[in-house]
Specification:
Order of helices and strands: HHHHHHH
Distance between the termini: 109 Å
Number of helices: 7
Helix content: 55-70%
Length: 164
């Protein structure tokens, strides 16, 4: 090996050694600085409040149609006044029965409702309570009472020029 190659190798080893020493120095320095900053102490009230605010959920999933103010409170446990048949039709039934979605009898289409009414009004009520084919139980709103469903069925039949 020539003297020039030997000098180059010594220079490379010296530079690499200096870099390793500098990295070790930075690591030791970071360890001491970080160790002093993270004392085991209880959080102050403002720090705790800030922490709770940062980790608080940004939203919630609701599975009811109750207003947000009353959901989960004692007020929501009180029985709500029963909705009229027209309200139930507008809020729940019209989504499918208004357009005849998936074969649902259309509101106002007498020919759609006559064969179903021929089975008996109690059968219609049973289908609306328990569901049938693509229609979920209670039209997808488990908060509806049987009386509200009967009123809604009566309203839809009335709008279709039929009576129960």
């Amino acid at each position: 090996m020539s003297e020039q190659e030997n000098d180059s190798m010594l220079t490379l080893v010296g530079v690499l050694g200096a870099m390793v020493a500098f990295a070790v120095f930075i690591g030791v320095l970071a360890y001491f600085i970080g160790g002093f900053a993270h004392e085991d102490r209880p959080l102050e009230a403002r720090e705790l409040a800030a922490l709770k605010e940062r980790i608080a959920p940004i939203g919630e999933v609701r599975t009811s149609d109750q207003p947000l103010e009353t959901a989960g409170t004692a007020a929501s446990q009180a029985p709500a006044a029963p909705r009229s048949g027209a309200e139930v039709v507008q809020q729940v039934c019209a989504a499918c029965h208004g357009a005849g979605v998936l074969g649902a009898p259309k509101i106002g289409a007498k020919a759609d409702w006559e064969p179903r009414l021929a089975q008996g009004f109690d059968t219609l009520v049973n289908h609306s309570v328990n569901g049938i084919r693509a229609m979920p139980p209670k039209g997808g709103n488990p908060g509806l009472s049987d009386d509200e469903l009967k009123a809604a069925l009566t309203e839809m039949l009335k709008q279709s020029s039929l009576s129960p």
